[in-house]
Amino acid sequence: MLTVDFSRFPLAPGDRVLDLGCGAGRHAFECYRRGAHVVALDQNAEEIREVAKWFAAMEEAGEAPAGATATAMEGDALALPFPDDSFDVVIISEVMEHIPDDKGVLAEMVRVLKPGGRIAVTVPRYGPEKVCWALSDAYHEVEGGHIRIYKADELLGKMREAGLRPYGTHHAHALHSPYWWLKCAFGVDNDKALPVKAYHKLLVWDIMKKPLATRVAENALNPLIGKSFVAYATKPHEPKAHAAGTQNDTHDEPARAAL
Asked: Angle at Cα 4 formed by Cα 66 and Cα 65, nearest 5°?
């Protein structure tokens, strides 16, 4: 189940991609299938081991094109172990709502993203998330849980402050919002409640079969109750005028010294 829409977020074979806070690896796997050089990074060692196993299985099964590479590694989102301008693409999906220093994470992502590179950020949407918080404290008051609810303008503003240029947004996973409302209403750890079990079965069927009826329904409902908010942005190139001005200033230094 992908949150990033790759029809709006172009990815070319050979692109170097960082999936930051990769979790179970869903976006990293898709990028690998598309021929990218993927680095899946997360602080959870157990999940990284599983992602590495799946990368190996995909390579053995021939699921990725020749030349594509994939690496899974532990790391800290606030201190990424990569040089500046290392990646063509950065994805951070359903992570920033967990991190106190979200501006620090954005700064690190911008640092390792090449000028002209693209970034996709996804977070829980404000409206559906507010319902979850209202229904259940246990939904968010857990170690490593959600510590904030983003409004769209707030997230886009922070992305601009970090030096990014947003170019598109959308909502995703409308059919998942009622599931989480049910989970919160019946208890987030109570998977045996009949409404929760029945709706979960529907979601699994939808993910596996992708029937036209539910695809149409979700697309129609996404603007209203989509569970995730997705924002796409680019890292601008340094303005040529600024670069030229810097060179001119440098060349003028000896003349100023002579005067």
From this structure: 5
